[in-house]
């Protein structure tokens, strides 16, 4: 039979409550008693010996990954990248989904602190409104995909501005200048930056940014982006092209284009920031800005491990380039990269 807390307590000649306090990382136990309990844990095999070693150093072998929306296709490959590298380095992963809710995110951060995880990788639901106590540096945190403005953290991000400019520049090169966009909420940096790239591309090409052509949509709901796209397509002088802010938004936009019986690319063109799963099998296949999702996750873990090893080093921000994949939704020759 597997040893129990009672077995550990008996061997160490302490109470079960004392064993529980030590296992949970509480500090109100004397060093001699703590050592007896840890030795009993290892001797009985109550938990793997590596856990006992981590208890001695008041740490764990667990990394928390907090993402904003588990249904967002972007996070599938990204999470795999995090898990692969974490596992390779002896860490287990706890995955939490905030559903783009800052309050829920705060609860998960509190849980991570209570569990004394080794580190946290955080794709935040908001760029601000973070409790200073949860960002005090006691537990290393790496910001992933989205910046957090009120604290200095390591960060791994995509070049959102550059990717958006590339998308819009491609549409401009095909003769489109009335380009509508559907972007995510304005409280996260990736959406803010993608809108910024959209506006910069138009301005640098000599066009005025028309606020009527900009719509925001809930990043979690395809129906919301479908509604926003229908609003753009109902304008008296509707856009001839669309730039969509992520894969879920693109799905809603494609649904709206089909609903009003527009043909793509003859009636309207489209570029998506982020690839749509199976997008190359669609007819027409959407042109996309493809993000290096696996590498984002891999790099986030590597930064976190570096921070764990050296807590005092200066924060690092890494920006990765996204790639334009030209398919059929813009009328340009497919399979060509720009």
Mean pLDDT: 87
Helix coverage percent:
40-55%
Poorly predicted parts: 48-53, 334-338
Count of helical regions:
11
Structural class: alpha/beta
CATH topology of the largest domain: Rossmann fold
CATH class of the largest domain, please?
A: Alpha Beta
Percentage of residues in DSSP E strands: 15-25%
The radius of gyration over CA amounts to 25 Å
Instruction: Sketch the major β-sheet.
Output: 6 strands, parallel
Give the CA-CA distance, first to last residue.
63 Å
Main sheet: which strands, in order across? Answer: 2-1-3-4-5-11
What is the CATH superfamily of the largest domain?
Response regulator
Q: CATH architecture of the largest domain, please?
A: 3-Layer(aba) Sandwich
Which H/E pattern describes the elements? HHHHEHEHEEEHEHEHEHEEHEE
Q: What does the overall shape look like?
A: elongated
Could you explain the architecture of this structure?
This protein is 41% helix and 16% strand. With 338 residues, it is α/β, with parallel strands linked by helices. It has 3 domains: 5-56, Orthogonal Bundle (434 Repressor (Amino-terminal Domain)); 62-158 and 293-320, Response regulator (Rossmann fold, 3-Layer(aba) Sandwich); 160-290, Response regulator (Rossmann fold, 3-Layer(aba) Sandwich). The strands form 2 sheets. Strands 2-1-3-4-5-11 form a 6-stranded parallel beta sheet, with helices on both faces. Strands 7-6-8-9-10-12 form a 6-stranded mixed beta sheet, with helices on both faces. Helix 9 (222-233) packs across helix 10. The chain is elongated. Mean pLDDT is 87; it is low at 48-53 and 334-338.
């Amino acid at each position: 039979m597997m040893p129990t807390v009672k077995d550990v307590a008996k061997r160490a000649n302490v109470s079960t409550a004392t064993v529980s306090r030590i296992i949970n990382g509480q500090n109100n136990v004397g060093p001699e008693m703590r050592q007896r309990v840890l030795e009993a844990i290892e001797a009985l095999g109550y938990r793997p010996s590596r856990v006992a070693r981590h208890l001695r150093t008041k740490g764990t072998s667990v990394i928390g990954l907090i993402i904003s929306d588990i249904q967002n296709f972007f996070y599938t490959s990204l999470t795999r990248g995090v898990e692969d590298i974490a596992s390779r380095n002896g860490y287990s992963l706890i995955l939490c989904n905030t559903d783009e809710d800052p309050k829920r995110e705060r609860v998960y951060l509190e849980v991570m602190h209570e569990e004394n995880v080794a580190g946290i990788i955080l794709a935040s639901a908001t760029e601000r409104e973070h409790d200073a106590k949860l960002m005090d540096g006691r537990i290393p945190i790496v910001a992933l995909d989205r910046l957090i403005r009120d604290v200095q953290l390591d960060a791994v991000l995509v070049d959102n501005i550059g990717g958006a400019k590339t998308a819009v520049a491609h549409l401009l090169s095909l003769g489109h200048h009335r380009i509508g966009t559907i972007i995510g909420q304005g409280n996260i940096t990736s959406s803010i930056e993608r809108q910024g790239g959209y506006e910069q591309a138009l301005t640098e090409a000599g066009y005025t940014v028309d606020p009527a052509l900009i719509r925001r949509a809930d990043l979690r709901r395809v129906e919301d982006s479908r509604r926003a796209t229908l609003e753009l397509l109902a304008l008296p002088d509707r856009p001839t092209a669309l730039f969509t802010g992520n894969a879920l938004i693109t799905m809603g936009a494609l649904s709206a284009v089909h609903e009003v019986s527009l043909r793509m690319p003859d009636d309207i063109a489209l570029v998506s920031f982020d690839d749509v799963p199976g997008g190359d099998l669609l007819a027409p296949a959407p042109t996309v800005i493809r993000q290096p999702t696996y590498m984002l996750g891999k790099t986030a873990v590597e930064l976190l491990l570096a921070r764990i090893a050296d807590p005092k080093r200066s924060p690092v921000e890494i920006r990765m380039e996204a790639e334009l994949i030209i398919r059929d939704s813009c009328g340009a020759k497919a399979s060509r990269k720009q």
